[in-house]
Write a structure and sequence with these properties.
The protein is α+β, with helices and mostly antiparallel strands. It has 1 helix and 8 strands; from the N terminus they run H-E-E-E-E-E-E-E-E.
Length: 171
């Protein structure tokens, strides 16, 4: 009888240890997940003129297909946070699409906001946001196209800090 009580106590102790270990593991997982979520700084002042309305016209379906290349954060090296996005608009063969308007839409202060950037002669665009962030920022990038190039929209997730992962792995 005494051996049985000792076994029950031992089993109860193991169950308690497993429960504590599982709770600890859950807390660690929650902490890691919370650290990877987007953290937006509220130190910036923004104006409604920083944003534009996303056009309602349809994407062009004629002309050469295009793609967004090397879309990545513009980081503030001192603080390792992102302050905007940069990238290229080019054809499948790598030719730049110059003078194109690229619309960048993201969620900020309770609403979806859109900014527009114009590509240079190399197809390069950049936009500095009225915020900075760490973690991953969901971003919709849209080019409506023209008579020569098809329109394109992509939902990207851009890292707001150097997480040691190549941005190309997510595009």
């Amino acid at each position: 009888m005494e051996t049985m009580t000792s076994q029950n106590q031992s089993n109860s102790s193991r169950a308690r240890t497993k429960s504590i270990a599982l709770i600890l593991l859950a807390v660690i997982c929650i902490a890691i997940a919370g650290a990877t979520l987007v953290t937006v700084s509220s130190t910036f002042q923004w104006k409604s003129s920083d944003f534009t309305t996303l056009p309602t016209n349809s994407l062009s379906t004629t002309g050469t297909a295009v793609m967004f290349a090397n879309v990545q954060p513009i980081t503030h090296s001192k603080h390792a946070v992102a302050v905007g996005v940069q990238g290229y608009l080019q054809t499948g063969s790598g030719s730049p699409v110059a003078g194109a308007q690229v619309y960048l839409t993201y969620y900020f202060e309770g609403a979806y906001r859109t900014q527009v950037a114009t590509t240079d002669q190399n197809g390069y665009f950049q936009a500095t946001f009225p915020m900075n962030w760490t973690g991953w920022l969901p971003l919709t990038v849209t080019y409506f196209g023209d008579n020569q190039h098809r329109g394109l929209t992509r939902l990207l997730s851009v890292a707001g800090e150097n997480l040691g992962i190549s941005p190309a792995a997510f595009f």
